[in-house]
Design brief:
It contains 9 helices and 21 strands. Helix content is about 20%, strand content about 30%. It has about 450 residues and is of the alpha+beta class. Strands 1, 2, 4, 5, 6, 15, 17, 18, 19, 20 and 21 form an 11-stranded mixed sheet that branches.
């Protein structure tokens, strides 16, 4: 659905009300286009657990339909200013998972099956609550590609600042009215994970700090949404289902839109690579909060409203995302120097006849891979290519003026460091750094 006046065939704003079937397909029609500099607004569905227990969905999430951005061509980037991320769910459930045998064709995220009637991607319905509530429409038997080993149901306060995990009676009461408490959007197809009613650690108080686990551009070949990254994407290599890829195809087509990086939140600026005409901006998998690493494999997935402003960056030099986090989200060594620090540095430089201190700005380059070591190498190589520096120099800069941060185990990282501002200017990103950090 598009909303707003058109200029040259493009809308000033686009409102998204629809979702994919968990596959990002560059051949499917896109919404929009939205004009360069325009606004995209969406009501997103919960990611991870809901789609994971909905076998007819062909990926681990339920993301929005992609939107074309006017003027975005392969080889460009799209800069996304994240204006707002607001949780609309009243409650959610999550936990550490296991995958019972027999309920998938190679990958439970992508190719769920009913082991009784052997239907692949079966349509299902709910009968009651609990971990066997999802039933095959054909044979009536439970279909559970995933189960919760240790989990919790959490409800949020009216200000959406804290949550509390619930005992079993409260979790079961919420499970009986799961769509309401999950605030599932009307167009969502998923079963809410609230029907599982997990309650293994009641009474935990948690902070809310919402962000988008999925935000990016459409890959250039049809790909399950949760696998649009180097770590989960590795599961597609040689897979027995129709979405199998070779290693070369994965590297060529993915855009690393599935990051689960907690700094992708309101106020941040994210730059994403464009691999198809129009870019195909999409989003989803909102998290109510998460620590670095998402080490349980899942966190508090929620529905929510999102407002983004988009802008085309011509001739973007790398194939992955770059993030300009909020200053408070930067690691200590990568924060801009204060006036006092700068003055002290200039005095020291004069003493040792250093002609001038370089002008620098924080930048965070995303790397992904089958494991964290490969992801780090990928991030270092991307940073080197972005700034036309050697990998050795990036290693040094990230060591003395930065950090390697974990977005998600097993293989999403951030190489965050103070980069030469003239190098960012050379690739059209210096203005975003100045805007973000008041330089």
């Amino acid at each position: 659905m598009a909303d707003g006046s058109r200029t040259g065939g493009a809308c000033r704003s686009v409102i998204i009300n629809g979702f994919t079937n968990s596959v990002l397909d560059p051949d499917a029609p896109m919404l929009g286009p939205v004009e360069n500099g325009g606004t995209v607004i969406a009501n997103t569905a919960p990611g991870c657990w809901g789609p994971m227990i909905t076998p007819s969905l062909r990926g681990g999430h339920e993301v929005t339909r992609p939107v074309a951005v006017e003027g975005a061509e392969p080889g460009d980037g799209i800069a996304i200013r994240i204006r707002d991320v607001t949780v609309t769910s009243l409650a959610t459930a999550s936990g550490h998972d296991s995958s019972p045998e027999g309920f998938c064709l190679g990958d439970p995220y992508v190719a769920a099956r009913c082991p009784t009637c052997d239907a692949l991607w079966p349509e299902t319905h709910l009968e009651g609550i609990g971990q066997e509530a999802v039933r095959c429409n054909v044979c009536g038997n439970p279909v559970t590609p995933f189960s919760i080993v240790h989990g919790y149901t959490v409800t949020f306060d009216d200000t959406r600042s804290v949550g509390v995990t619930l005992p079993s009676d409260a979790a079961e009461a919420i499970a009986r009215d799961a769509p309401h408490y999950a605030a599932l959007p009307d167009a969502s197809h998923q079963h809410s994970i609230l029907v599982y009613a997990p309650s293994d650690m009641p009474g935990a108080l948690v902070r809310m700090r919402p962000f988008l686990g999925q935000l990016g551009t459409c890959p250039s070949k049809a790909m399950p949404d949760s696998h649009n990254a180097g770590d989960f994407g590795a599961f597609l290599v040689g897979a027995p289902h129709p979405y199998a890829l070779t290693p070369e195809e994965l590297a060529e087509h993915k855009t690393d839109g599935h990051m689960d990086i907690d700094a992708v939140r309101p106020g941040a600026i994210l730059v994403c690579p464009v691999k198809v005409q129009g870019g195909g901006l999409y989003m989803g998998d909102m998290h109510a909060g998460q620590g670095d690493g998402e080490i349980a494999g899942h966190t508090m997935d929620v529905a929510g409203s999102v407002t983004l402003q988009v802008e085309v960056v011509k001739d973007y030099p790398i194939d992955g995302p770059v993030l300009f986090p909020l200053a408070e989200d930067l690691p200590p060594m990568a924060r801009p120097f204060s006036d006092v620090e700068r003055a002290r540095g200039e005095r020291l430089a004069r003493r040792w006849h250093v002609n001038a201190l370089e002008e620098v700005a924080p930048v965070s380059v995303i790397g992904t891979g089958a494991n964290l070591n490969i992801a780090i190498e990928n991030g270092l190589e991307r940073a080197a290519k972005l700034l036309d520096l050697s990998v050795a120099e990036i290693r040094n800069r990230a060591t003395i003026n930065g950090a390697i941060e974990i977005g998600r185990a097993p293989g999403v990282i951030q190489v965050t460091f103070l980069a030469p501002l003239d190098r960012l200017d050379a690739v059209g990103l210096g203005g975003y750094a100045r805007e973000q950090y008041g330089l």
